[in-house]
Amino acid sequence: MNLSRSTRYRGLIILIVINFMMYAGFFMVIPLVSVHYVQTMGFAAVTVGLALALRQLVQQGVSVGGGVLSDRFGGRGLITAGVLVRAVGFASLAFADTPLLLFGSMLLSALGGALFEAPSRAGIAALTTEEERARAFSINGVGGGLGMVIGPFLGALLLDYGFSTVALAAAACFAFIGAITLFLPPIETATDRNRLGFGLGLALRDRPFLAFTALLMGYWFMWVQLTISLPLVGERLANAADAVRWIYGINAGMTVILQIPVISLFERWLRPLSILILGIALMAFGLGMVALAGSFPLLIGCVIIFTFGTLLATPAQQSVAAALADKRALGSYFGVNALALAVGGGLGNLSGGMLIDLAAAFNLPALPWLAFAGIGFISAVGLTILGNYLQLRSATAQLVGMHR
């Protein structure tokens, strides 16, 4: 993309702002869905759980299509279309009074996310140089963290006026994002826009990238324990719902305050892949130490270690994905990379609950945490092996070039 530096930076600022608003709008309403439909509407909990699971599975699974379309038609249009489709999905939640309508609303929300997720991340990669990329993804993560803090707060305030008001406010937020996207510069996520599916073919034949995506499932497997296993053990140790607020508050607070300084410090000495490996290892260590946490303060210490690992791993995994991706098809590559969250996050949610139940049934409280840690360390070792292979391949290619 032959854009001036000022135009690239303008595009980056807009993408970071709309990412903040996406998180705020999403977390304004989604955490209230289960409470509203189970406690107020009287739906079965399993029905609401299936609707929420459908949203995540469809969004992450269909993100590949969003990336392919981004490469063919440009990222700006896909982002605009995606946020508007999500606005319609959230607006329909205000009137969804049957399970069928709830599932339809969740499906629309998921399709919207599938359209804008890969183009948004690929857009940041396309608008940055390699030296700028880690910092850009870090700032983007801070924006997301702020949205995660502000969104639930706004949702709780608006809930006094009814769940429909919350849903319509979230829809209005995404509609406003749609208007903001019109000020984005053209975002070209591919250099070859003539063949639909060309980039997907490149990504699916790229064995190192596919190996990276598969190994990244371990990162997402651990990451989702923040929403499943950690709150459960927190409530057990503290015997209070406030435990969840403490866990989320510490995670969000550390992200907002420390994300940029931490990644800026570590990138002085380490390359993104090494930062990612270290981050995943710290996440695994933090989860593993929960097996020894016999009190809530000790659990909070484990959460701090785990969160510090995410501060390193989250921006680094996006930087590594951008570095490994073929620049001819960034959108398709980021779409394929989203499958790591679809599979790893899905398995993490499913296994997390199952392992917690098994631990209680067989009186093996350490079982889930040792399993989570084991998966994380396997991922870190696998990424280390992949990094050594890539380094050896690069060195071999340079030697061959020198002898020609």
Automatic annotation (TrEMBL):
Predominant localisation class: membrane
Keyword tags: Cell membrane, Membrane, Transmembrane, Transmembrane helix, Transport
One of the record's GO cellular component terms: plasma membrane
Pfam families (alphabetical): MFS_1
Keyword Nuclease: no
GO MF, one example: transmembrane transporter activity
Subcellular location: Cell membrane
Membrane topology: Multi-pass membrane protein
Domain (Major facilitator superfamily (MFS) profile) ranges: 11-391
Record-annotated membrane-spanning stretches: 12-30, 100-116, 137-159, 165-187, 208-226, 246-266, 273-292, 298-317, 329-347, 367-390
Entry superkingdom: Bacteria
Protein's name according to its UniProt entry: Major facilitator superfamily MFS_1
